[in-house]
Amino acid sequence: MKWLGYLHKPWLHFLVLGSVLYQIQITVFPGPKTVIGPLSASRQEALQQQWLSSFGQPPTAKQQAQLIEDELDRDLLFQHALELRLHLQDGIVYDQLIRNMRFLDVDTDKSNSELFQAALDMRLHLADEVVKRRLIDKMKQRLLTLNPPIEVEETQIAAEFIVRKHEFYRSPRYSFTHVFINSEREAELDSIIKTIQDQQLDARAARYLSSPFMSGYEFQAQTAEQLARNFGAVFISDLTKTAPVVDQWHGPIRSSFGWHYVWVSAVEAGRDARLDEVAPQLRRSLEVTAREQALQAAMVALRSNYEVRQ
Length: 310
Fold this sequence. Notes:
This protein is of the alpha+beta class. The chain is built from eleven helices and six strands. The strands form two sheets. A four-stranded antiparallel beta sheet has the order 3-2-5-4. Strands 1-6 form a two-stranded parallel sheet.
């Protein structure tokens, strides 16, 4: 056959040998990796200041190292997004860069597409934090699509419930209505209580005797911690010490605001939560953990394609 004659042509041998040598070269001697980092001193200082603003004290050496590592990961994700040209395919990035260009040149008569190209030419996308955050989020979504988290199973939820059962203890809850007597009316306290008792007033009927109370008069299924925010710790301590009986008046009980005569309508004893009550919460927690693990695994693989300098 005629084409078999080409197999003996020197130029064909040269092309085949060249291709093989090229593949060997790029395999054995790959090109230099893109360098990520190190962070400048000013960026490291900015991370420290952000931490100080959030927590009121400077980060420890370990915390600072983690901040730097996290920031380098953000740079890596941003760089990879740019290499994939994701910034050319995203509406939010497009709108943000056009807004920036119109801010720089209010009277421009250029079209949006022209402004977008001009912004790219000026490399505005590299310094815009909105663009950076958007592309980082898109990269994370892309990594999770390629490396999806493991599905959470019912057996995992049950096992997690056993481990974390103490976290879901349901504290005692109290439901009551109160008549409030402020400090200016303290002298009337005994007579108000006597009126309620003599007339056998229920909680709603007795309210006309109350002073105004900003947080309201009826409280339903509140824990001691929740009630303390409205009445103070002393009130809650005195109320719970009396082991209040349902459908009875209790008090008067002092708070930091004055005196309270309290009609207790319900007391729910403290108990351990049931699995069915907290299963949705446990599922969400496990899904977040699985997502973080999948993302970290993907990041490990991605880092191998770059030279990350601390």
